[in-house]
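Consider the following input, taken from an annotated entry for Polysaccharide deacetylase (Natronorubrum sediminis).
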Amino acid sequence: MSNATVCFSYHFDAVSTWLWSYDSWDAPTRHSRGVFGAEIAAHRLLDLHDAYDVDSTWCIPGHTIESFPEICAEVADRGHGVQHHGWTHRGPSTYESREAEKADIERGIDAIYDLTGEKPTGYASPAWDFSEHTLEILLELGFEWDSSKMASDFKPHYVYDDWNAPEDGPYDRGEPTDIVELPASWQRDDFPALTYTWSQPHRMGYVSEDSLFRRWYDQFDWMVEHVNGGVFVLTLHPQVIGQAHRLSRLEDLLEYMSSTSGVEFETMDAAASAFRAEHPDPESFRDEYFFSHRS
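Applying the prediction step yields:
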Protein backbone atom coordinates (compact mmCIF):
# COMPACT_ATOMS: atom_id res chain seq x y z
CA MET A 1 0.00 0.00 0.00
CA SER A 2 1.08 3.61 -0.51
CA ASN A 3 2.03 5.76 2.45
CA ALA A 4 -1.41 7.40 2.34
CA THR A 5 -4.51 6.64 0.29
CA VAL A 6 -7.55 8.85 -0.29
CA CYS A 7 -10.88 7.35 -1.31
CA PHE A 8 -13.59 9.69 -2.49
CA SER A 9 -16.80 7.83 -1.70
CA TYR A 10 -20.04 9.20 -3.14
CA HIS A 11 -23.25 7.90 -1.62
CA PHE A 12 -25.51 8.50 -4.60
CA ASP A 13 -28.79 8.23 -2.73
CA ALA A 14 -30.74 10.62 -4.96
CA VAL A 15 -34.42 10.38 -3.98
CA SER A 16 -34.08 7.12 -2.06
CA THR A 17 -32.79 8.74 1.13
CA TRP A 18 -35.94 10.87 1.38
CA LEU A 19 -38.26 7.95 0.73
CA TRP A 20 -36.83 5.37 3.10
CA SER A 21 -34.72 7.25 5.63
CA TYR A 22 -37.11 10.17 6.11
CA ASP A 23 -40.44 8.57 5.16
CA SER A 24 -41.17 11.46 2.81
CA TRP A 25 -43.22 9.68 0.19
CA ASP A 26 -45.64 12.61 -0.14
CA ALA A 27 -43.05 15.40 0.13
CA PRO A 28 -42.07 16.47 -3.41
CA THR A 29 -39.91 19.36 -2.21
CA ARG A 30 -37.70 16.85 -0.40
CA HIS A 31 -37.65 14.60 -3.45
CA SER A 32 -36.39 17.55 -5.46
CA ARG A 33 -33.16 17.59 -3.46
CA GLY A 34 -32.44 14.08 -4.69
CA VAL A 35 -33.40 15.01 -8.24
CA PHE A 36 -30.89 17.89 -8.07
CA GLY A 37 -28.23 15.41 -6.98
CA ALA A 38 -28.93 13.13 -9.92
CA GLU A 39 -29.61 15.59 -12.71
CA ILE A 40 -27.19 18.43 -11.88
CA ALA A 41 -24.72 17.75 -9.08
CA ALA A 42 -23.52 14.31 -10.20
CA HIS A 43 -22.46 15.74 -13.59
CA ARG A 44 -20.53 18.52 -11.88
CA LEU A 45 -18.67 16.06 -9.69
CA LEU A 46 -17.82 13.75 -12.57
CA ASP A 47 -16.41 16.71 -14.49
CA LEU A 48 -14.32 17.70 -11.47
CA HIS A 49 -12.86 14.22 -11.19
CA ASP A 50 -12.16 14.17 -14.91
CA ALA A 51 -10.29 17.47 -14.63
CA TYR A 52 -7.95 16.03 -12.00
CA ASP A 53 -7.92 12.43 -13.26
CA VAL A 54 -8.93 11.17 -9.80
CA ASP A 55 -10.74 7.88 -9.31
CA SER A 56 -13.72 7.68 -6.99
CA THR A 57 -16.24 5.15 -5.75
CA TRP A 58 -19.98 5.62 -6.09
CA CYS A 59 -22.06 3.58 -3.65
CA ILE A 60 -25.42 3.55 -5.38
CA PRO A 61 -28.77 2.18 -4.21
CA GLY A 62 -30.50 0.06 -6.81
CA HIS A 63 -33.42 2.48 -6.64
CA THR A 64 -31.15 5.26 -7.92
CA ILE A 65 -29.84 3.05 -10.72
CA GLU A 66 -33.34 2.21 -11.89
CA SER A 67 -34.69 5.75 -11.42
CA PHE A 68 -31.77 7.62 -13.04
CA PRO A 69 -30.13 5.08 -15.36
CA GLU A 70 -28.40 7.57 -17.66
CA ILE A 71 -26.28 9.31 -15.04
CA CYS A 72 -25.51 6.02 -13.29
CA ALA A 73 -24.29 4.63 -16.61
CA GLU A 74 -22.13 7.72 -17.01
CA VAL A 75 -20.53 7.09 -13.61
CA ALA A 76 -19.57 3.59 -14.74
CA ASP A 77 -18.56 4.66 -18.25
CA ARG A 78 -16.16 7.27 -16.85
CA GLY A 79 -14.34 4.53 -14.98
CA HIS A 80 -15.45 5.08 -11.41
CA GLY A 81 -16.22 2.24 -9.05
CA VAL A 82 -19.87 1.32 -8.56
CA GLN A 83 -20.57 -0.43 -5.28
CA HIS A 84 -23.50 -1.54 -3.13
CA HIS A 85 -25.63 0.78 -0.99
CA GLY A 86 -28.81 -1.27 -0.70
CA TRP A 87 -31.62 -1.32 -3.23
CA THR A 88 -33.70 0.88 -0.99
CA HIS A 89 -32.02 3.32 1.36
CA ARG A 90 -33.41 1.48 4.36
CA GLY A 91 -31.34 0.72 7.44
CA PRO A 92 -30.71 -3.04 7.75
CA SER A 93 -31.91 -3.15 11.36
CA THR A 94 -35.38 -1.97 10.26
CA TYR A 95 -36.20 -5.11 8.26
CA GLU A 96 -38.78 -7.45 9.70
CA SER A 97 -36.74 -10.56 8.88
CA ARG A 98 -33.38 -11.82 7.64
CA GLU A 99 -35.06 -12.89 4.42
CA ALA A 100 -36.37 -9.39 3.72
CA GLU A 101 -32.96 -7.81 4.34
CA LYS A 102 -31.22 -10.35 2.12
CA ALA A 103 -33.78 -9.85 -0.65
CA ASP A 104 -33.07 -6.10 -0.68
CA ILE A 105 -29.31 -6.68 -0.86
CA GLU A 106 -29.74 -9.22 -3.66
CA ARG A 107 -31.93 -6.81 -5.59
CA GLY A 108 -29.21 -4.19 -5.24
CA ILE A 109 -26.63 -6.65 -6.56
CA ASP A 110 -28.83 -7.34 -9.58
CA ALA A 111 -29.22 -3.63 -10.31
CA ILE A 112 -25.46 -3.08 -10.25
CA TYR A 113 -24.82 -6.17 -12.38
CA ASP A 114 -27.34 -4.94 -14.96
CA LEU A 115 -25.54 -1.58 -15.02
CA THR A 116 -21.89 -2.68 -15.05
CA GLY A 117 -21.89 -6.37 -15.99
CA GLU A 118 -20.11 -7.14 -12.71
CA LYS A 119 -21.20 -7.99 -9.19
CA PRO A 120 -20.23 -5.44 -6.55
CA THR A 121 -17.37 -6.37 -4.25
CA GLY A 122 -18.06 -3.78 -1.56
CA TYR A 123 -20.90 -2.60 0.63
CA ALA A 124 -21.67 0.65 2.42
CA SER A 125 -24.73 0.32 4.58
CA PRO A 126 -27.49 2.93 4.36
CA ALA A 127 -27.00 5.17 7.41
CA TRP A 128 -24.05 2.91 8.37
CA ASP A 129 -26.50 0.59 10.10
CA PHE A 130 -26.13 -3.19 10.60
CA SER A 131 -28.67 -5.71 11.79
CA GLU A 132 -27.76 -8.93 13.55
CA HIS A 133 -27.87 -10.60 10.12
CA THR A 134 -26.06 -8.11 7.90
CA LEU A 135 -22.52 -9.40 8.19
CA GLU A 136 -23.61 -13.01 7.74
CA ILE A 137 -25.53 -12.03 4.60
CA LEU A 138 -22.53 -10.14 3.19
CA LEU A 139 -20.29 -13.15 3.74
CA GLU A 140 -22.87 -15.48 2.20
CA LEU A 141 -23.20 -13.28 -0.90
CA GLY A 142 -19.45 -13.00 -1.43
CA PHE A 143 -18.72 -9.39 -0.54
CA GLU A 144 -15.04 -8.64 -0.03
CA TRP A 145 -15.12 -5.34 1.85
CA ASP A 146 -17.36 -3.03 3.82
CA SER A 147 -17.29 0.65 4.73
CA SER A 148 -19.85 1.11 7.49
CA LYS A 149 -18.03 0.51 10.77
CA MET A 150 -15.88 2.74 12.93
CA ALA A 151 -13.50 0.60 15.03
CA SER A 152 -10.66 2.56 13.45
CA ASP A 153 -10.38 5.96 11.86
CA PHE A 154 -7.75 5.47 9.14
CA LYS A 155 -6.51 1.88 9.39
CA PRO A 156 -8.21 -0.83 7.34
CA HIS A 157 -8.79 -4.05 9.23
CA TYR A 158 -10.91 -7.18 9.10
CA VAL A 159 -14.50 -7.01 10.33
CA TYR A 160 -15.18 -8.97 13.51
CA ASP A 161 -18.22 -11.19 14.09
CA ASP A 162 -19.72 -13.22 16.97
CA TRP A 163 -19.26 -10.33 19.39
CA ASN A 164 -20.90 -10.53 22.79
CA ALA A 165 -22.03 -7.70 25.07
CA PRO A 166 -23.47 -9.20 28.27
CA GLU A 167 -25.05 -6.85 30.78
CA ASP A 168 -23.06 -8.41 33.61
CA GLY A 169 -19.75 -9.12 31.90
CA PRO A 170 -16.98 -7.66 29.73
CA TYR A 171 -17.40 -6.95 26.06
CA ASP A 172 -16.11 -9.64 23.71
CA ARG A 173 -15.24 -8.31 20.27
CA GLY A 174 -15.48 -11.74 18.65
CA GLU A 175 -13.43 -13.15 15.79
CA PRO A 176 -12.21 -11.65 12.49
CA THR A 177 -14.02 -12.53 9.29
CA ASP A 178 -12.76 -12.42 5.71
CA ILE A 179 -14.35 -9.02 4.99
CA VAL A 180 -12.01 -6.01 4.92
CA GLU A 181 -13.24 -2.86 6.63
CA LEU A 182 -12.43 0.56 5.17
CA PRO A 183 -13.37 2.68 8.18
CA ALA A 184 -16.24 5.12 7.84
CA SER A 185 -16.66 8.22 9.99
CA TRP A 186 -19.46 10.68 10.63
CA GLN A 187 -16.65 13.22 10.96
CA ARG A 188 -15.87 12.78 7.27
CA ASP A 189 -19.44 12.87 5.97
CA ASP A 190 -21.08 15.96 4.47
CA PHE A 191 -24.72 15.00 5.04
CA PRO A 192 -25.13 15.45 8.84
CA ALA A 193 -23.33 18.79 8.90
CA LEU A 194 -24.77 20.42 5.80
CA THR A 195 -28.29 19.05 5.35
CA TYR A 196 -31.26 20.46 7.20
CA THR A 197 -34.50 18.58 7.69
CA TRP A 198 -37.30 19.88 9.82
CA SER A 199 -38.90 16.69 11.12
CA GLN A 200 -38.07 13.33 12.61
CA PRO A 201 -36.13 11.05 12.62
CA HIS A 202 -33.37 13.68 12.60
CA ARG A 203 -33.20 17.41 13.07
CA MET A 204 -30.00 18.64 11.49
CA GLY A 205 -28.86 22.17 10.95
CA TYR A 206 -26.16 23.96 9.07
CA VAL A 207 -22.64 24.25 10.45
CA SER A 208 -19.93 26.58 9.30
CA GLU A 209 -18.57 25.24 6.03
CA ASP A 210 -15.19 26.73 6.92
CA SER A 211 -15.22 24.61 10.07
CA LEU A 212 -16.24 21.43 8.24
CA PHE A 213 -13.62 21.69 5.52
CA ARG A 214 -11.00 22.69 8.10
CA ARG A 215 -11.80 19.45 9.94
CA TRP A 216 -11.19 17.45 6.77
CA TYR A 217 -7.85 19.19 6.12
CA ASP A 218 -6.78 18.63 9.72
CA GLN A 219 -7.74 14.95 9.73
CA PHE A 220 -5.99 14.38 6.42
CA ASP A 221 -2.82 16.09 7.63
CA TRP A 222 -2.81 14.07 10.84
CA MET A 223 -3.26 10.80 8.97
CA VAL A 224 -0.43 11.57 6.54
CA GLU A 225 1.90 12.45 9.40
CA HIS A 226 1.04 9.66 11.84
CA VAL A 227 -0.49 6.67 10.02
CA ASN A 228 1.66 4.72 7.61
CA GLY A 229 -0.61 3.10 5.05
CA GLY A 230 -3.62 5.06 6.24
CA VAL A 231 -6.80 5.24 4.17
CA PHE A 232 -8.81 8.47 4.25
CA VAL A 233 -12.41 7.71 3.26
CA LEU A 234 -14.34 10.90 2.55
CA THR A 235 -18.08 10.24 2.24
CA LEU A 236 -19.96 12.73 0.10
CA HIS A 237 -23.47 13.02 -1.32
CA PRO A 238 -23.97 14.67 -4.72
CA GLN A 239 -27.10 16.50 -3.57
CA VAL A 240 -25.09 18.04 -0.70
CA ILE A 241 -21.50 18.58 -1.86
CA GLY A 242 -22.56 19.31 -5.44
CA GLN A 243 -24.01 22.70 -4.53
CA ALA A 244 -22.22 25.30 -6.61
CA HIS A 245 -20.47 27.15 -3.79
CA ARG A 246 -19.17 23.91 -2.27
CA LEU A 247 -17.57 22.64 -5.47
CA SER A 248 -14.81 25.24 -5.26
CA ARG A 249 -14.03 24.20 -1.69
CA LEU A 250 -13.96 20.56 -2.72
CA GLU A 251 -11.67 21.36 -5.64
CA ASP A 252 -9.30 23.19 -3.29
CA LEU A 253 -9.24 20.17 -0.98
CA LEU A 254 -8.57 17.84 -3.90
CA GLU A 255 -5.74 20.05 -5.10
CA TYR A 256 -4.23 20.13 -1.62
CA MET A 257 -4.36 16.36 -1.28
CA SER A 258 -2.92 15.92 -4.77
CA SER A 259 0.05 18.13 -3.90
CA THR A 260 0.90 16.14 -0.75
CA SER A 261 3.85 13.81 -1.17
CA GLY A 262 3.16 10.08 -0.86
CA VAL A 263 -0.60 10.34 -1.38
CA GLU A 264 -2.50 8.30 -3.94
CA PHE A 265 -6.16 8.33 -4.92
CA GLU A 266 -7.77 4.92 -5.24
CA THR A 267 -11.16 3.34 -5.62
CA MET A 268 -12.30 1.65 -2.44
CA ASP A 269 -12.06 -1.74 -4.12
CA ALA A 270 -8.41 -1.08 -4.98
CA ALA A 271 -7.68 0.06 -1.41
CA ALA A 272 -9.30 -3.05 0.05
CA SER A 273 -7.44 -5.31 -2.37
CA ALA A 274 -4.12 -3.67 -1.47
CA PHE A 275 -4.77 -4.20 2.22
CA ARG A 276 -5.72 -7.84 1.68
CA ALA A 277 -2.56 -8.44 -0.36
CA GLU A 278 -0.45 -7.03 2.48
CA HIS A 279 -2.39 -8.83 5.23
CA PRO A 280 -3.82 -12.00 3.66
CA ASP A 281 -4.63 -13.89 6.87
CA PRO A 282 -7.52 -12.49 8.99
CA GLU A 283 -6.71 -14.88 11.84
CA SER A 284 -3.22 -13.45 12.27
CA PHE A 285 -4.45 -9.91 11.95
CA ARG A 286 -5.92 -9.03 15.33
CA ASP A 287 -6.04 -6.23 17.86
CA GLU A 288 -2.26 -6.25 18.13
CA TYR A 289 -2.19 -4.41 14.81
CA PHE A 290 -3.89 -1.41 16.37
CA PHE A 291 -2.04 -1.39 19.67
CA SER A 292 1.40 -2.00 18.17
CA HIS A 293 1.25 1.36 16.40
CA ARG A 294 1.68 4.68 18.16
CA SER A 295 -1.20 6.16 16.17
